[in-house]
Each structure stands twice: as C-alpha cells, then as structure tokens.
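W.,

You were right to be curious about this one. When I first looked at the sequence I had no strong expectations either way, so I just let the prediction run and decided to look at it fresh. Below is the sequence, 281 residues in total, followed by the output.
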Amino acid sequence: MRVLITGVSGQLGHDAAKVLTEKGIAFIGFSSRELDVTDRDAVLRMFSQYRPDAALHCAAYTKVDRAEDEAERCMRVNADGTRYIAEACRKLDAKLLYVSTDYVFPGTGDKPWETDDPTGPLNVYGLSKLAGERAVRELVEKHFIVRTSWVVGAHGNNFVKTMLRLAETYREVRVVDDQIGSPTFTADLAPLLCAMIETDKYGVYHATNEGFCSWAELAEAVFRLTGKDAAVRRVSTEEYGAKALRPKNSRLSKASLDAGGFMRLPDWESSLAHLPVKGEL
C-alpha cells in the first residue's frame, strides 16, 4: 500500500508519517508549502504522479478566531482543498481519510455527540470542515471521516504549549471553564488513523482520548504536571470574549470506534503525563 499524507509538517501529519515509517508502509508527505491543496491542478497532478492507494488528509486551516476575518481563505483550504483531494482519490479509486472536528456540532446539551447527530457549526472554521465532510461523502465511496477535538502533539503548536509559554510570564492565566470536551494526543490518534486506512471499515468515526474536561481543567493539569508556578483563573466563554463562537459541549461519543472494532484511545490524563514537550512533561 502507498499512502499520501497532506499536512505532513503539522502535529498529526508528522506523527502519522512516523507511524507509517514504523509499519514499513510506503508513503509520501507534503507540507502546505510543498502542496497547496487549493490548487486543483497541482493536487490532481501530484496524485497522478504518486498514485497512492490511500490518502491521509491532515492539512487544514485551523486558526479558529482568525477564520472569522479570513472566511474565504479558510473555506478555500478546508472546503475547496478537501474537494480537490477527494476528486483526486476518486480518479484513482483510492481510500480517503479526512480529519474533521467537534466544531461541526452546535455544542448544546451535555450528552456526547453521536456520529449521526444533526450538525450545526457555530463558526467559520466549523462550517468549512463540515463542507469538507460533504465533499468527501459526495465524491469518495471509500472514505473515513474522523472527527476529533483539542489536538495536542509534541510537534507543532497547541494549547499545552501555549499554557507553558504563558506560565513563564504570568502568575495567573485566564482559561475558559464552560467548554467541555476531550484533549486528543497525536501520538495516540495517528496509530488509529493508520490502522483504519489498512481496513475497509469505511464511515464516520469520533476519536478522542478518553475522559472529559474543561479547558481550565486541562490547563491546571499541565501546570500540576510541570510544576509551573501559575494559577488558572476560571472564566466563562462570555467573559473570555473570543472572536469566534465555540461549542460548550464538545463531548464526542466513541460508540463508532467500538462498532468498527477499533481500540479506544487512552485516558487523556495518562497521555498528557507522557507528552514530551520541550522536556517539560
């Protein structure tokens, strides 16, 4: 099997490449600088040259607040770019695994979202990722759509690294306490995605680390594990005042993983404790 990875320089793409290397599976990976997914001709040409059996589409526009001002750019990358990747996979009859997000849901209630629950994004980023899902469903029969949340990896930028950086300067950090979800560690998620593409168990999945917490609880765990002398000031979503609206309920049900015969990811606290971030965790 030959695999093509988009966004290979990002947190998830980097770890997926590492897993495929360990498995001995041939792959080629492209960063956004090497393959602009918004360039349809470039995408089709690259797929035609490499002729992958499967694609891991990890490339995405992920700046949630900035997307409110750069809606066109966000939609070009996450919606149009995904459509071009899907077109290329259809031409080759290749499998496509598309990484989506909890932000496709409206965030109401407190029950974990099932894969077939009604969607309703609150922000441009969520709308763009949902448009990508629709393109994948429309164009590629052999598809996996994997919704995840709060992605954290040793490679690249993320919430954990931001908290560690802020703790170097501030004695108190304001963190939202009424958005509930699950951190997802790329070292756990990448092996699952690579295992999926070796199967024909197509469909929509939710994959996060086990357990739920608020952003504030995650920040407190980071400071506790690293011994940082910084306190968390818990604030509401409204008090924090982010530009983009975010779902307060980002809990995702993992029943889809169980039904597909895939292993659930470890508890988020145990994975956080083993996360190598500049030697501080």
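Here's what jumped out at me. The radius of gyration is 18 Å. And, maybe more interesting for your project: The mean pLDDT is 95.

Coffee later to discuss?

I.
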